[in-house]
Amino acid sequence: MTPEQLAEARGRTLEDVIGDGLRVLFCGINPGLMSAWTGHHFARPGNRFWPALHASGFTPRRFAPAEQRGMLDLGLGITNVARRATARADELAADELTAGGKLLTAKVEAHRPAWLAVLGVTAYRVAFDDRLAQVGPQERTIGDTRIWVLPSPSGLNAHWSPAALAAEFGRLRTASHQAPAA
Fold first, then answer.
1. What pLDDT, on a 0 to 100 scale, did the predictor assign at position 182?
2. Strands across the sheet containing 145-150
3. 7-19 burial by CB neighbour count: b if 16+ within 10 A, else e?
4. What are residue 77's DSSP bridge partners?
5. Which end of the chain is more exposed for a tag (fewer CB within 10 A), N or C?
6. Keyword annotations for this protein (predicted)?
7. What pLDDT digit, counting tens, does each position of 26-68 carry?
8. How far is the C-alpha of 111 from the C-alpha of 25, rounded, in Å?
9. Which of 178, 181, 115, 104 has its CA nearest to residue 150?
10. What residue ranges do the domains of the chain occupy?
11. How far is CA 177 from CA 68, 115, 180, in A?
């Protein structure tokens, strides 16, 4: 892929990988340029989403981005807070993330996953106006859907090692298999 092709992907959107009643709906911040160009979520080779998903036990093997629709068979889905593709998440304005949080809430209300996993604490804080949120389970819910904030799997988020990232994904995987509290 050429720099020109990547530049052409700026502003494109990706189709959600979503269905009703998922166990976990993973929510990225927004598509990167390579994802927008390929049409597949988390497509940049340095992105650690697919390795963490497998290392944590969510998938029986490491999926390639082009296999993203196979996640539905495992009760998993993918969406984004902001729809517009950018080179870096910090190119998004706060109002774009806030508007994305409202659209995300509507998606969750419509599809009712057991868990919403937002990949990026800073994006979650802005989208849901929760400046004190930390990585991990949140007290906030959307209807019956519980929320877990995961670290961003972007290679730019280097202070989360691959092992630590997989461990946090694993905590969510364990929680997603437990029966909800009565």
1. 46
2. 76-80, 24-28, 115-119, 145-150, 136-142
3. eebeeeebebbbe
4. 25
5. C
6. DNA damage, DNA repair, Glycosidase, Hydrolase
7. 999 999 999 999 999 999 988 999 999 999 999 999 999 999 9
8. 9
9. 115
10. 3-177
11. 21, 10, 9
Q: How many CA atoms lie within 13 A of 126 on its CB side?
A: 18
The model's pTM = 0.95
Cβ partners under 8 Å of residue 46, min gap 6: 154, 155
Q: According to the model, what pLDDT value does residue 179 have?
A: 64
